[in-house]
Amino acid sequence: MRSPRLLVVNADDFGFTADVNRGIIEAHRNGILTATTLMANGAAFDNALQLARENPSLDIGCHLVLIGGESVADPRQRLPASVPELVRTVGVGRMSVYDELAAQLRKLLTAGIRPTHLDTHKHTHLLPSVMAAVAGVSREFGIPWVRKPLPVPVLGSLLEWRLRRGGSRTTDHFAGFSLTGRFGTAELIRCLQRLGSGSTEFMCHPGFCEEDLRRAHTRLKESRVRELEALTAPETRRTLEEEQIRLVNYRDL
Q1: How far apart are CA 109 and CA 97, in angstroms?
Q2: For the chain, which residues make up each domain, given as ranges?
Q3: Burial classification of residue 14, based on how many CB atoms lie within 10 Å of its CB (0-12 exposed, 13-18 middle, 19 or more buried)
Q4: pLDDT tens-digit profile of 164-219?
Q5: Nearest residue to 78 via CA among 89, 91, 64, 63
Q6: Is 95 exposed, middle or buried (0-12, 13-18, 19+ CB in 10 A)?
Q7: Which of 84, 93, 135, 172 could form a disulfide with 166 if both were Cys (CB 3.0 to 4.6 A apart)?
Q8: What are the CA-CA distances from residue 145 to residues 31, 61, 67, 197 (Å)?
Q9: What fold characterizes domain 5-248?
Q10: Where does residue 198 fall: left (phi above 0), alpha (psi -120 to 50 degrees), or beta otherwise?
Q11: In whole angstroms, what is the distance from residue 59 CA to residue 78 CA?
């Protein structure tokens, strides 16, 4: 008998733009999306809050942002524009990663959102100093689920060990990173067919590509529409049934 395969399909960037928000909701209502992570400093944060309230079955986490946009801890400041700039800023003591992440979580809580899981924009929790802060806010705010670090040799395993040592949890597997910006229905189906046993988080970036997104600073534009089409395709749902993959969210886990 095949071991159970549990799948969390999580959309990053909730709150980025209104058209991204609508795409995420479409992927949840009419597709296989079960969860999303909300950007506390997103330009469409208020719109995301309204949509979250209208769609209580959508599991909400926090997309912790340290690159791009305004600081939540100090709105007078801009966050670093790149990973190298983040490393320099933290290295010279011009930014407290922990304080920034804690401020972002408090903003969600104040707005009535109880996050069930955490991940980071641009996967910055691969940086040891950021991972330490993520593990810290995971404990402080009682949010045990953290995205499994990318499988970087040695470093990925070490960071996951640090998370688990601090009481945080990850899914057994993480998928979708290598497909970011370049998958459609066929690629998604192949990924689903290869899922291992246990729990997997599949990361995605669905959305509609309209004026807001076209003006935004991101490389993921038209690709979000292709991802949305793949997540809502009948063939995708059929593959889940054929492969006996059960859709879950972090509340279920």
Answers
A1: 19
A2: 5-248
A3: buried
A4: 888 999 999 999 999 999 999 999 999 999 999 999 999 999 999 999 999 999 99
A5: 89
A6: buried
A7: 135
A8: 23, 9, 22, 19
A9: TIM Barrel (3.20.20)
A10: left
A11: 29
pLDDT in tens, 58-91: 999 999 999 999 999 999 999 999 999 999 999 9
- 45 to 49, 78, 122, 210: CA distances (angstroms): 6, 17, 18, 17
pTM of the model: 0.96
Q: Which amino acid is present at 120?
A: T
116-137 as b/e: b if 16+ CB within 10 A: bbbbbbebbbbbeebbbbbbbb
**Distance from C-alpha of 198 to C-alpha of 5, rounded to nearest angstrom:** 5
What confidence tens digit (pLDDT) does each residue in 112-159 have?
999 999 999 999 999 999 999 999 999 999 999 999 998 888 788 888
C-alpha span between 74 and 151 (Å, rounded): 33
Contact 44, 15 (CB under 8 A): yes
**176 Cβ contact partners less than 8 Å away, ≥ 6 residues apart:** 191, 201, 202, 203, 204
- CA distances 75 to 39, 70, 72, 86, 209, Å, are 15, 6, 5, 17, 28
Query: What does the alpha-carbon distance between residue 219 and residue 90 come to, in Å, rounded to a whole number?
Result: 25
CA distance 86 to 182: 27
